[in-house]
Amino acid sequence: MSNSRKTADRDYGFGTRAIHAGAIPDPVTGARATPIHQTTSFVFDSAEHAASLFNLQTFGNVYSRISNPTVAVLEERVASLEGARAALACASGMAAQMTAILAILKAGDHIVAASTLYGGTVGQLGIGFSRLGIETTFVDPSNPENFERAMRPNTRAVYGETLGNPLVNVLDIGAVAAVAHAHGVPLIIDNTVASPYLCNPCALGADIVVHSATKYLGGHGTTMGGLVVEGGKFPWDNGKFPEMVEPSRAYHGVKFFETFGDFGYTMKARMEVNRTFGAVLSPMSAWQLLQGTETLHLRMREHCRNALKVAQFLQQHPKVSWVNYPGLPDSPYFELAKKQFRAVDGMPGASGILTFGIEGGAAAGERFIDACEFLSHLANIGDAKTLVIHPASTTHRQLNDEELRKAGVSADMVRLSVGIEDVDDILWDIDQALDRATRGAA
Ligand SMILES: *Cc1c(COP(=O)(O)O)cnc(C)c1O
């Protein structure tokens, strides 16, 4: 724990870091909880101090669009939980992805991405960034060779998700990292659904990790936020990223890689993207997300346990035609899940998201959602509460039929984000809603 006043030579466990990393008792007041530094700006000690801060010669706070002490605790904590070098907080998961990409790509560059990404990300890459002249080729991620075939001389990033949403397909991160690295470009992994508790993509070969902290990191469905995390091992001076090496036109001629080394990418993202485009996290939101991180390890274990029980229950239910959960031994992704994810009770911890097909198709799917008593119908995942949605008519309705097919979203698909309520109550609600939804159809 870098900020600890005691310098114990010890590798702290995940739970200890989830509670302490990045934080110390407040040196001014003694407050044990991290204070909310709700201020836009910070007083300089002297004219000389101000100049050295602006020159990035001294680390310190100037203005909360660049850095803020409460936000910095969240950044250090998530970097620690990812076993990574540094992190940058952003206003949302979408802002974090935007920042991660804008830090190193420009018009004329190209991305190779999994076709099964979160619907909002498909839109951000396929429409948003293509408007800015950054083109994306989407490939079926089940075979890493598909990434290889789509690589071009102007490719500057490969993009995937640890666990897809809503397909909950598992990416072979090591194999896809090898493709990216053979072409001298970084692998960016969205680790939102697994969370740092179940998987650390940088340990498997990823270079940059992005999170929607809105989901499991926060964990209570209260606060938007995102993070960009840097592994610290990518060789930015390989000739493909001159802007990481040459003096920055956007910031005082700084050479980011030479000056900051293994956190040069984070500094470039902070100074050239967050500072310039402004999608920063508020101190209040950072504080709320910090409350969530303190119980991440406890919640993720319970999400995994409950989701596995729900998946097993659905598998034997007569009104359910199929169940997709990578923690089930007959899932095509079980072996990869076992290899890449932390075990929970001896099974691969496969997070809380699963999908299933309901007998009676789209109509029954919509009736099921209306019949739930305490399962909440809403467009979010990773909440302590169990959430349910029909993707084809909601989260993925912007996609055309071809994109829906590629994203693997069928009309009968119901997505559950299994919460941490008593599992018997979750099973009861699902059972009674299935009964009511399919009774009419029979
Ligand atoms: C929700 C989500 C995002 C977007 O995050 P926001 O915080 O909603 O902006 C990105 N990726 C995945 C996998 C998500 O589930």
Which key features would you list for this structure?
442 residues; alpha/beta; Aspartate Aminotransferase, domain 2; Aspartate Aminotransferase, domain 1; 2 domains; seven-stranded mixed beta sheet; five-stranded mixed beta sheet; 14 strands; binds pyridoxal-5'-phosphate
Structure classification: alpha/beta
What small molecules does this complex bind?
pyridoxal-5'-phosphate
CATH top level label of the largest domain? Alpha Beta
Average residue-wise pLDDT: 94
Extract low-pLDDT stretches. none
**How many distinct domains?**
2
The number of helices is 18
- Tell me what portion of residues adopts beta-strand conformation: 5-15%
CATH-level-4 superfamily name of the largest domain: Type I PLP-dependent aspartate aminotransferase-like (Major domain)
Architecture (CATH level 2) name of the largest domain: 3-Layer(aba) Sandwich
Q: How many strands in all?
A: 14
Strand order of the largest sheet: 1-7-6-5-4-2-3
CATH fold title of the largest domain: Aspartate Aminotransferase, domain 2
Radius of gyration computed on alpha carbons = 22 Å
Distance between the termini: 59 Å
The largest sheet is: 7 strands, mixed
Helix content: 25-40%
Shape: globular
